[in-house]
Amino acid sequence: MPHDNVTAPNAEEVLHRIAGWLAEFDEDGRKPGREARFADLDIDSLDLVEVAEQTRARWGATLEVTDVKDLQTVGELVDLVLERAR
């Protein structure tokens, strides 16, 4: 659970963490970049819901299924997390 005194994340930190989480879905463990498309990474909306839960736990960024289901790229997810993070 995030602490109230934790500073808001920066884009580099969010990208690094999200790329690490997404690498868990890749059989070779490759970390995607900001421009990577979820379709190319074989990441589906259920995978994104799992990542959304991790963002909530890490930064307090609440992302609903409806928020993530239409995202196309890692960068879009990073931007949404930055917008929603405490």
Write a structural description.
The chain is an all-alpha fold. The radius of gyration is 12 Å and the shape is globular. The chain has one domain: Orthogonal Bundle (Non-ribosomal Peptide Synthetase Peptidyl Carrier Protein, Chain A). Helix 1 (11-23) packs across helix 5 (74-84). The protein has five helices and no strands. The chain has helices at 11-23, 38-41, 45-59, 65-68, 74-84. 55% of the residues lie in helices and 0% in strands. The two termini are 12 Å apart.
Question: What's the SSE blueprint?
Answer:
Elements: H1 11-23, H2 38-41, H3 45-59, H4 65-68, H5 74-84
Helix pairs in contact: 1-5
The largest sheet is: none
Which structural class should the secondary elements be placed in?
Answer: mainly alpha
Quote the CATH topology: Non-ribosomal Peptide Synthetase Peptidyl Carrier Protein, Chain A
Report strand %: under 5%
Helix-strand string: HHHHH
Mean pLDDT: 89
Query: Which CATH first-tier class would you pick?
Result: Mainly Alpha
Helix count from the secondary structure assignment:
5
Q: What's the number of structural domains?
A: 1
Q: Which descriptor suits the 3D outline? A: globular
List segments where confidence is low: pLDDT < 50 over at least 5 consecutive residues.
Answer: none
The CA-CA distance between the termini, in Å, is: 12 Å
| Rg, alpha carbons | 12 Å
| Helix content class | 40-55%
Number of strands: 0
CATH superfamily: ACP-like
CATH architectural type: Orthogonal Bundle
